[in-house]
Amino acid sequence: MRGNMLIYLALLCLMLAGAGWMAHEAQLQTEEYNRLQQEIHTLEQENTYLRKMVQELRAQQETLGRRMQKWLDEWDAGEFEATAYTLECGNGDGYTATMTRPEEGRTVAVDPDIVPLGSPLYVKGLGWRLAEDTGGLINGHTIDLYMGAGSSALNKASRWGRKNIIVVYPGGETCERHKSRR
User: Is this structure's pTM higher than 0.90?
Assistant: First the structure.
């Protein structure tokens, strides 16, 4: 009987240990479940934030697309033959076709049928300039850059020579509106 008692006692200990182990496992599973629930909640919040960001980026993309299309409708770009001139090369009165005083780094002679007088234009490598002058030899896609007055300007213009250069200028709808006002 004593042997049976020991067996019962051993079984009872095993059952209690198993119950403890099962309770411990249940606690671990509960903790894991809670951790996963928290992770799901965090991911749902991040997903909501990312959806909002996608909507904002799509709206920005649409805005940029409209702005780009507007720019493309109003500006042209092309290769121009670029020459250089000085005050001594002009008609001698010191005024441009727009009745301004030419200024080095600003004044460009253009064909007004291509680039409207008074228009800004971007000359690759030189930056922004202003279409203020015309010239007898400036036809089509040709520009003449004003280099200043005096012998140093004349020397600079000679060194410039003739170059093919990319120019961004008002065109499309902008140019058509300008031409209809003339």
Answer: no
